[in-house]
Amino acid sequence: MSNNILEPKFFACTQSTELAEKIAKAYGTDLGNVIISKYSDGEFQPALEESVRGRRIFVIGSTFPNSDNLMEMLLILDAAKRASARHITAVIPYFGWARQDRKDKPRVPIAAKLIAKMLETAGATRIITMDLHADQIQGFFEKPVDHLFASTIFMPYLKSLNLENLTIASPDMGGSKRAYAYSKHLKSDVVICYKQRLKANVIAHMELIGDVQGKNVVLVDDMVDTAGTLAKAAELMMERGALSVRALATHGILSGGAIERIENSKLEELIISDTIPLERSSSKIKVVPCAPLFADVMSHVQNNTSISNKFIL
Predict the structure, then answer these.
(1) Membrane-crossing residues (predicted)?
(2) What's the N-to-C CA distance of the chain in angstroms?
(3) Which of 19, 39, 47, 107 has the smallest number of Cβ neighbours within 10 A?
(4) Hey, what domains does the chain have and what are their CATH numbers?
């Protein structure tokens, strides 16, 4: 590194402090100090307790609900901008509100675009995130986006399982591109679940496109929320003769009764990353750390070198 390039500083949003500490450690540095002052009505004010003038800073925080998590990210970005940081990179391992990426019915917002604009207005000059709900969300930003793929960290674990007669499955039509990418790399077959919803998080009907008889199936998705889709898909596949069913999802939202649903399901295992802190766990849940990947990419960003070799799929 050139001697005239100042070392970057890392700051964490409250909800992602544990992950941010792991990223900073993997990078070889410590987190900067952020003090959060709170008012009795719920309003809060973050303050950066060290100078960032002329430096690149990384603000690390997933923006899953509640909305305070997003608001804290925005306020820290604004604080850094007003403190004359040179580059402000928002590191958002899980980009929340991304399921609202289009108008699928009248009079609804496109929340993903709104949040992209809010992040840029607050001061972000670059975004680093992983497995967006839809790739085209990158187009909502006018600033550079480094869109990382969790396959980089999941693929070594999948290969270590040494599963014979492996088949990759998509739990819905929208995830078929992701499933085909995994299957191409693993040289496996692909099946797709077709589902119809009554409303958000409620499935009315599911059908299976493809053959899973005598196969070890891995369902691939970007997130697992209530786990209803994965549980129903696993049950359907076991009924159709699958030897085993595992699920792989980048972001473990695991809301409502998700943990119980996983424990009572036909799933052999649920593999997730730690982009979202896991409040409760299960013997069926395997967490693959994402901190080394983020730290590596952030090092390349700081040194203005290519990250193209970080993408397996």
Answers:
(1) none
(2) 29
(3) 107
(4) 9-149+291-310 (3.40.50.2020), 151-288 (3.40.50.2020)
